[in-house]
Amino acid sequence: MKEYRTYKRAVRERRAFLRFLVFSLSGVLLFVILPFFDVFGRSFTTAVTGQFNGIENYKTIFGNRAFLLAVKNTLRFTGVCIPLLTIIGLLIAVPLSRLKEAGVVKSLYLFPLAMPTAAVVIVWKLFFYKQGFLNLYLSRLGEWTGLWGEVHTDYIGGGAAFWVLVFSYIWKNTGYTVILWLAGLLGIPNALLEAAEVDGANGLQCFIHIVLPNLKGSLYTIVILSFLNSFKIYREAYLVAGAYPAQDIYLLQHLLGNWFVNMEFDKMAAAAVCVGGFLFLVIMLLQYFWDKKE
Amino acid sequence: MREARRIKGMAIRAVTTVILLLPGIFVCIPILLLVTGSVMGSNELKDYLSPVLPNGTGFISWKIIPDYPTFSNYAKLLFFTPQFFVLFWNSMKLVTLILAGQLLVGVPAAWAFAVYRIKGSKMLFALYIVLMLLPFQVTMLSSYLVMNSFSLLDTHMAVILPAVFNTFPIFLTYGGFRTIPIELLEAARMDGAREEYIFWKIGLPLGKGGMLSAMVLGFLEYWNMMEQPMAFLEDKSLWPLSLYLPEITWDQAGYAFFASLLMLLPSVFVFMTGQDYLEQGIIYSGLKA
């Protein structure tokens, strides 16, 4: 009787699960997953005639200098930004968590999230153009200290553009990261910290031995979401510097966008499969470690 | 002694507050620039901005209070540029329909993942997370091919449909539903409530926070959307505002400032009203799957 009841329950649950999920799942299948299989198929054919040509497309893209450059730049960008953002967020969140009136500060940090890229970019241009605000103030500072003369760096056309993007990314996402760190920090039981203090641990020891280990869960989330948001920097890059920007900020998104415009679907399919597959692996690995931690 | 310690504590707090606020103020400088720029006449702006134009010399300059404040940009945009409103409503239409669709499709899906643990549901959820993390450019070609075969290219539907099935809002709403105690649902089942009834009467009211946060984050995201309309909409009269702003040239800088300000307003409004939910949503996005 009991077995029958659990069986009946399982059936009921499965049916309810499917009923609630059916719209979403069919949409995702129709608009994302099946088309991606189609693209996977296309990645082994030629663009125009659609003939099977094996792994020729993959060979082409891995011999393509633009593709290699874009991959390198994208990896460099995420490699620089994610650790930087994570650390800056933590540095702000720790003192903020001790503040009673953190509301205003939090809103200020979150605010850039609400600023549409198109509206911000016009300000970025005023700051980072060769004769913009940044060079103006740098020149004044140089004059005042007598250490250097007028500064005429081009922050958008040259290698410095990379750092403009990094700045822009940090500017936009610090609030998000701070909130996530704060949630983690506030989740640490006070009793734990008090006990350590009673045992004579100083502030730094408390931080290293109690606070940091308790933040591992938050770290995984922050890394995943920073990763997600790092792809969105393309908007800034595109609006500031167009479809063919300085070499250092030519990202994978630029490349795929340009191939799309030029209808080079064979290369695009191969690249989409490679990038998608790579991301899939990275995320699965992160998930695996995340699960193991708990 | 105690007094001295109290003062020291207060001083430390005051200093940290100031240090924390400083970058925050820095965050708001762009707004200030946009506001002052929008009330400057074109001659005054030309004086300030000529250095950043091609062949300009010297450096850019600026005044917080313009010498000759004017509302000419406001008049020009509000009364003489009907095109602006077409694009503004395009943006509104796209965002509203996307968010409505996401609610209809995503909320039940989030409920399914949050409440029922059947074989394979965890795997499926992991797949949803991977899909949510794929950048648009990776799925661009496949979306294009689908839209092409449904002959939806160059219609708003080409932008709306893929966005409706984005899995990020499901992830956030899921976080909200997970905070509902399972015992509550069990109790309802004991009393003979159907699953739909439980969803409607317990899930929706208690999981409201997660849904609202998904809506707030969604609004900020889709108001700012660029890649999708750029790839799928050729007809410029269908464009959202986010694609139009960058098209304004420097000789109309004051106009561009005001247009940017108008684009900012709905976002800021949603941000201000929904800030608590936004924060909640960010925290939900940190919950373990």
Tell me what you see in this structure.
The complex is a heterodimer of chains A (294) and B (289). The radius of gyration of chain A is 25 Å and the shape is flat. By secondary structure, chain A is an all-alpha fold. In chain A, helix 2 crosses helix 13 (265-293) and helix 8 (190-198) packs antiparallel against helix 9. Chain A has helices at 2-42, 56-62, 65-98, 103-110, 117-128, 133-145, 161-186, 190-198, 203-214, 216-230, 233-241, 252-261, 265-293. Chain A starts with a helix and ends with a helix. With 289 residues, chain B is mostly helical. In chain B, 74% of the residues lie in helices and 0% in strands. Chain B contains 14 helices and no strands. In chain B, helix 3 packs across helix 14 (253-284). Chain B is flat, with a radius of gyration of 25 Å. Chain B starts with a helix and ends in a 5-residue tail after the last helix. In chain B, 46% of the residues are buried. The model of chain B has no long low-confidence stretch (mean pLDDT 84). Chains A and B meet through helix 1, helix 3, helix 4, helix 5 and helix 6 of A and helix 1, helix 4, helix 5, helix 6 and helix 7 of B.
Explain the layout of strands and helices:
The complex is a heterodimer of chains A (294) and B (289).
Chain A (H helix, E strand, L loop, with lengths): L1 H41 L13 H7 L2 H34 L4 H8 L6 H12 L4 H13 L15 H26 L3 H9 L4 H12 L1 H15 L2 H9 L10 H10 L3 H29 L1
Chain B lengths: L1 H37 L3 H8 L22 H9 L1 H34 L5 H13 L2 H14 L7 H8 L3 H11 L3 H9 L4 H12 L1 H16 L3 H6 L8 H4 L8 H32 L5
Number of helices of chain A: 13
Overall mean pLDDT of chain A stands at: 85
Tell me the number of strands of chain A: 0
The helix-and-strand class of chain A reads: mainly alpha
Uncertain regions spanning at least 5 consecutive residues of chain B: none
